Amino acid sequence: MENLIALFNFGFFRNAFLAALVASITCGIIGTYIVSRRIVFISGGITHASFGGIGMGYYFGFDPILGAIVFGIMSALGIEFFTKRADLREDSAIAMLWSLGMALGVIFIFLTPGYAPNLMSYLFGNILTVSEGDLIYLFILAVFVISFFLIFYRMIIFVSFDEEFALTNNAPVRLFNALLISLVALTIVLNIRVVGIILVMSLLTIPQAIANLFTKRFDVMIFYSILFGFLGSITGLTISYIYDIPSGAAIIFTLVVIYGLMKTGFIIFGKANLKYRENIKG
Amino acid sequence: MDSLVEIRNLSAGYGQNIILRDVNLSIQQFDFVGVIGPNGGGKTTLLKALLGLLSPISGEINFSESMTEGNSHRIGYLPQINNIDRKFPVTVFDVVRSGLMSRKRLTGRYNSEENDRANELMLEMGISGIRNKAIGELSGGQIQRALLCRALVNSPKLLILDEPNTYVDNRFERELYEKLKVLNEKLSILLVSHDLGTISTYVKSYACVNGSLHYHSGNKVTPELLKSYECPIQIISHGEIPHTVLYNHKS
């Protein structure tokens, strides 16, 4: 225990701790939106498309995360546009942008002379190398996401639950869809630094799956997702430090284990509960 | 009689695919219109045009002054229950109150008067006991009731129901129609249904939609009538109500 507390003397560990906290909050909110609206596949597409921006960043020498932000938001809005207006199958549009982004990323990184530093950290992330600059981005995003959901909570639920009904009520459905999918893209891209492209989707879905065991309400689900996301991140982070294994993988693994334990608990408890009821009846 | 909605020479469809041609219909105050017709005949297209989800290719839909409130129309809409994502984490109370969003600003909060109105309706529909449950925990009939409350909470002048008799049990279906009968004393109803047999005892008029639209006042349906309107329908209805069997005929 003392060893664990001593970890906080290290700057990198403090940063990692803060990153886990802030990431859990944004991913808790945005992930609940993604899961409720069943846009997990769209979000996966955005995630991978943003790799194109990372490749461009390497090639042209700007911050790869900036490139990823631009690619992420453009592909998010692109999917919205193509499926609604251009009469293209949604899953096909997603698959196309998904692989196009990856292909561009690979091409640009190949063309970049010499070695591409930190490439692995974009693919798999490393919460232990999160810089103060990354933290500031994450923090600004968190403030923005929290305020947006606090101010427009009712409208977000209204537009998300039954889009057609919202349209018949003259609600700004398109505007909110575009704003929300852009927030999804931003959340994904900024969390790439934490767990990497390949693992970021699990940070947006597993805490929600755990939360969904406890509640079927949007606001409560956000709360539980943040709680379990943070618990999983901190545990995973500690495990990764102690056993010297990649942090992103450790975090996701921890989250899945938590889900497995909770689900098993619910099944056993649920059955016991049923038997108890039957006994009372009998 | 005052007419709430006038549809004049309306043609509507999707892209090049025109589904409704030259449709005329006026919905009178306190009318109870049963919209019938084969699948693909344009029932849904007509609804979408009325609800403003689909802009007409030609023709127009005019709403009376009493139907207009700000920039929206006083229409209550009950969608088909299978259009609803039943796993969406939202409570009954929030679903019902969301029917008031058209009069809200972007940051809408509900005042106590609006909460009272929602509570009152839920009590009337027998779902106030489950107001804090998520819709995923409800039966089909209960969801239907919650959606009906959402459609009614903003005091509409016209209630539009899209196939409310699918996926609910017979008992609830009967209850629903009895409820609609009472509601009809205060508002007009447009009911899309494939179950001609059951609705015939409740509706006051028929709109038979099959590419074109034929309006028929009165609730008696005879095969001859449908034949004369070139409306190929086959309906078999079971239950206590005497059933009608109509055969296919050429369109």
How would you describe this protein?
The complex is a heterodimer of chains A (282) and B (251). In chain A, 84% of the residues lie in helices and 0% in strands. By secondary structure, chain A is mainly α. Chain A has a single domain (2-281), classed as ABC transporter involved in vitamin B12 uptake, BtuC, CATH 1.10.3470. The longest helix of chain A is centred in the C-terminal third of the chain and has 35 residues, at 247-281. The radius of gyration of chain A is 20 Å and the shape is globular. The relative contact order of chain A is 0.15. The model of chain A has no long low-confidence stretch (mean pLDDT 90). Chain B has 251 residues and is α/β, with parallel strands linked by helices. Chain B has two domains: 1-74 and 156-170 and 183-251, Rossmann fold (3-Layer(aba) Sandwich); 86-155, no CATH class. Helices cover 26% and strands 26% of the residues of chain B. In chain B, the strands form three sheets. Chain B has a six-stranded mixed beta sheet with strand order 7-8-9-3-10-11. Chain B has a three-stranded antiparallel beta sheet with strand order 2-1-4, with helices on one face. In chain B, a hairpin with a 1-residue loop joins strand 10 and strand 11. Chain B starts with a strand and ends in a 23-residue tail after the last helix. The chains are: A mainly alpha (282), B alpha/beta (251). Chains A and B meet through helix 8 and helix 9 of A and loops of B.
